[in-house]
Amino acid sequence: MSLVAQLYAARWILTYALLALYTANKLWKYNRLRAFRGPFSTGWSELWHTSVLLSKQSHIYYKEINDTYGPIARIGPNDLITSSPELITHMNSVRSLYTRSYWFNAATRVEPGKDHIFSELNEEKHAKRRQQMAAGYSGKENIALESDIDARVQELLDLIRNKYLSSVSASYPVDLARKIQFFTLDVISTIGFGQAIGDLKADADQNDYIASGEIGLTIVKISSALGLTSYLQFPPIARLLGPSEKDKAGFGRMMATARNLIETRLTKSVEGRSDMLASFTRHNLTKDELLSEAILQILAGSDTTATAIRSAMLYLITHPRVYNRLQREIDATVSAENVQGIIQNSVLQKLPYLQAVVREVLRMHPPVTDVVPKLAPPGGDTVSIAGKQYYLPGGTNVSYNAWGMHHDKEMFGLDADIFRPERWLLEDTEAYREQLDAMRRTTEMIFGYGKYQCLGKPIAWLEITKVLFEFLRHFDWALATPEKPWRSTNYVGIFVQDEMWVLVTDRKPRV
């Protein structure tokens, strides 16, 4: 009897055997995490999590899950999500045995096989890359950092004053979301490559960076949600479907523009230069590594900071009490410090209400809500959260619920869903200091923690505080379309926002 005939004769036995193996595998996966509650389907299928990742508001769904099922909840057969700062601190600490998870971080690679600091899964290589890049981000080898940012802030102010000022005789609505993106792109290209892309001066999306970034983020979202990363990054498929510098849009277009910036910059000596690229080159990053990091800088460095500034302006405009108090602090500072040009960071750090406003904005609307899952160590791990013990089986993906953590009522008060900067200016008593310290430690995680902390945090904070100070110093603001303040879409943790139409009028400081 031929093999085919034998297989045909045993077809029902084979069918039942395969069905039994499939069922046993599903039961094994279900039982591994049966101690954690979640939507019923998440114990058996990725369908719920896939639909959330493909949605435009994944951060809201994640918050609802932890609100409903507790600080650690199940969102897939091998996936948990947590809103616990204790667990996030534990997983991200320098000596932690937790590692990055392939399904999420690898999906952010621009080119297959070429990692940047966020997609790198090897812990030793990741630590080395951080060491190579730290000096460039810190300003130690980028001494013109603040003056470069000041120049872009001035260009932003000039653009608004010259083209978009409204008055009692005429209104000129401006999409502030788009202008802020021009600003953050020009900042990151200036401090990164020594020259601005030029969006502010052109008042346009030069090289279609913004449009290309949205296309690229869409591909990342689909790849991670459907589990296609390993297939799309398989070399034969990647050559056919992956980004190419010949592309007219998407990551390929961004790669071509970034390569041109890098090659132009590398024709100049790095000696005596103080931009990030010079620092990275001095610390032995190759040209391919520079390209990968450049794409990440442009996306992560511009989109997240832009989201923070947009959110700050939206919350300020819609909360007149906060707006007016901050503007009074700014006017008093201009008078007391005799501020002439762009405000300096040394002064900004002494403004308690401005610092409180920024921290509250970042808490209310974290600029990045990517879940950045970590893999539990092979032998598993037992953790304690609020006095309760949890066992996390080895190889389990444990994700970060940013929106849930930073709207937690036990941590931030019963009004945690309300914008109130005064919560950061608590009375000076020991009890309040302890609570304030806990709140601060929690919000520090917005920029990552421990070995995964964002290197660009000081730069982002500098951009945000400078822009808010100068915006309220020179102009008055109102929403042009209060019934629809903006359009905001979440691409697996990165927000794309536009149509934030505002009216801007000139003002003189009132002391």
If you had to describe this structure to a student in words, what would you say it looks like?
The chain is α+β, with helices and mostly antiparallel strands and 511 residues long. It has two domains: 1-32; 33-506, Orthogonal Bundle (Cytochrome p450). The chain contains 23 helices and twelve strands. It has helices at residues 3-9, 11-32, 47-54, 58-69, 85-92, 102-105, 123-138, 145-163, 176-193, 199-202, 209-225, 229-232, 235-241, 250-266, 276-282, 287-317, 320-336, 345-348, 352-364, 402-406, 409-412, 430-444, 457-474; strands at residues 72-76, 79-82, 99-100, 174-175, 374-375, 381-385, 388-392, 397-400, 475-479, 487-491, 494-498, 501-506. A five-stranded mixed beta sheet has the order 1-2-8-5-3, sandwiched between helices. Helix 9 (176-193) runs antiparallel to helix 16 (287-317). The longest helix is centred in the middle third of the chain and has 31 residues, at 287-317. It starts with a helix and ends in a 5-residue tail after the last strand.
Molecular shape: globular
Quaternary status of these chains? single chain
Number of E-state strands: 12
CATH topology term of the largest domain: Cytochrome p450
- CATH domain class of the largest domain: Mainly Alpha
Main sheet summary? 5 strands, mixed
Mean pLDDT: 89
How far apart the termini lie comes to: 99 Å
Radius of gyration based on Cα positions? 25 Å
- CATH superfamily annotation of the largest domain: Cytochrome P450
Which range does the strand content fall in? 5-15%
Known CATH architecture of the largest domain: Orthogonal Bundle
Tally of individual helices: 23
